From TrEMBL:
Family in the record: Belongs to the GatC family.
Top-level taxon: Bacteria
Subunit (UniProt): Heterotrimer of A, B and C subunits.
Upper classification of the organism: Bacteria, Bacillati, Actinomycetota, Actinomycetes, Frankiales
Name listed for the protein in its UniProt record: Aspartyl/glutamyl-tRNA(Asn/Gln) amidotransferase subunit C
UniProt function note: Allows the formation of correctly charged Asn-tRNA(Asn) or Gln-tRNA(Gln) through the transamidation of misacylated Asp-tRNA(Asn) or Glu-tRNA(Gln) in organisms which lack either or both of asparaginyl-tRNA or glutaminyl-tRNA synthetases. The reaction takes place in the presence of glutamine and ATP through an activated phospho-Asp-tRNA(Asn) or phospho-Glu-tRNA(Gln).
């Protein structure tokens, strides 16, 4: 199954990409090779091998979450340069119109 130049142009339009004629001509065989490689991977997968996410078994090494006493709001905000409504006040970094 060969990917045609027209199919690449169609994909470019769908992804709102502007490609030159030279790029369309170069990408068609490259995409064809990528799809062929993916098809080969599916041929290799055997039904008797269970799917895995890692080559070796993993176990969770993190400790369990435990609720512990922490700072009160007043203690946490005591060293803050600015606070407002029981929260840290920080400078705006994003334009509000965006």
């Amino acid at each position: 199954m060969a990917i045609t130049r027209d199919e690449v142009a169609h994909l470019a339009r769908l992804s709102r990409m502007s490609l030159s004629d030279a790029e369309l001509d170069a990408l068609a065989p490259q995409l064809d090779q990528i799809l062929a490689a993916v098809a080969r991977v599916t041929e290799v997968a055997a039904a008797d091998i269970p799917p895995t996410s890692h080559a070796v078994p993993l176990t969770n090494v993190f400790r369990a979450d435990v609720t512990r006493p922490s700072l009160s709001v007043d203690e946490a905000l005591a060293a803050a340069p600015a606070a407002e409504d029981d929260r840290f006040r920080v400078p705006r970094i994003l334009d509000p119109d965006e």
